[in-house]
Write a structure and sequence with these properties.
320 residues, alpha+beta, 4-stranded mixed β-sheet
Length: 320
């Protein structure tokens, strides 16, 4: 099938798995046949709904209203909730540890690779790379260079391997943040619709969240569905509680269609010199590329009712 369709074997396997699961998910099958869902969207919806049929309507709504990254993240939460009984969580972590790997293969003068491991351990690597990656990006921007963010992440990995910045970098509370629903934390497991995850990385067990809490060293964000909107500062400084609230609300760039979760900047929608305050409702996280358009290219923010932004370019330029 892979040879016939010109796809990889992994894509062919995923297609077969999706079509097999569709037989038990008629709503998803109907939307796929009508063109409301792409095959890639259907793969995520069926992977979650096959584990928890009650999640199918929620996943279909997510597919309709959100980007691919948000749909994938919601699917991972569904699967994690199904397997988060205490014994299952222990077994899942054991399997993740046992199956950890880093594989490479060559393609001409380039070497490609893939890796897999327990989410909480992969998070340590990604957070170690983040400040180095940001430094590479800022240096390139100052010199007028523009490359893909993934290229800077690769450069950061090499810098880390060379020992660059290791002594100076210490784990920050932000880097070690865990997000968990209060009901799940008290119960000890997640249920459908609940969250326990390392933001920007992926789901972890409630057991891990409790370990974090018992150590008392890291930030644990406990959610109960209420936004923090009462914290206001009379200075440009953003208080710690407000930083956490913004990071929770804007887990990726606020600009529609952008799913960047790293290298985000907090942006004041109204200039501090005019308002003389820092407020939750007037702050938002945007990626470095969109932040550059706002600050340096004079793009105007259009704030939509669903909480997302779009950017309006100056006359004569293409819109974002």
């Amino acid at each position: 099938f892979a040879e016939t369709t010109g796809t990889s074997e992994s894509t062919a396997r995923e297609t077969f798995a999706t079509t097999t699961r569709l037989s038990e998910l008629p709503s998803t099958e109907s939307k796929l046949r009508s063109g409301e869902l792409s095959l890639q969207q259907a793969a995520h919806v069926t992977a979650g709904a096959f584990k928890d049929p009650a999640s199918e309507p929620r996943l279909l709504r997510k597919a309709k209203r959100s980007g691919m990254r948000e749909l994938r993240d919601e699917k991972e939460r569904v699967i994690a909730a199904v397997t988060d009984a205490v014994t299952d969580a222990v077994e899942a972590r054991r399997i993740a540890k046992a199956e950890r790997h880093l594989r490479t293969w060559t393609n001409g003068y380039a070497t490609q690779g893939r890796f897999s491991g327990p989410t909480e351990e992969v998070a340590k690597l990604l957070h170690a790379l983040e400040p180095l990656e940001q430094g590479r990006f800022e240096k390139a921007r100052r010199s007028g260079e523009h490359e893909a963010r993934d290229a800077y992440r690769f450069d950061a990995l090499i810098e880390l391997a060379d020992g660059g910045g290791v002594a100076a970098q210490k784990p920050s509370a932000e880097a070690a943040r865990v997000r968990v629903d209060l009901t799940a934390l008290l119960r000890g497991t997640t249920r459908s619709g609940e969250t326990c995850e390392i933001p920007g990385v992926g789901p972890v067990s409630v057991e891990h969240a409790r370990e974090v809490l018992s150590h008392g060293l890291l930030q644990l964000v406990i959610t109960n569905g209420v936004d923090v909107q009462t914290v206001v500062s009379s200075t440009r400084h953003v208080p710690a509680a407000l930083k956490i609230a913004i990071a929770e609300r804007d887990q990726h760039c606020k600009v529609r269609g952008c799913d960047r979760t790293v290298g985000l900047h907090r942006h004041h929608t109204k200039p501090f010199r005019e308002t003389h305050h820092t407020r939750y409702s007037e702050l938002g996280n945007v990626c470095d590329q969109h932040h550059h358009r706002i600050h340096d290219l004079d793009h105007e923010i259009v704030d939509h009712r669903d909480g997302t932004w779009s950017l309006r370019a100056p006359p004569g330029e293409a819109a974002a």
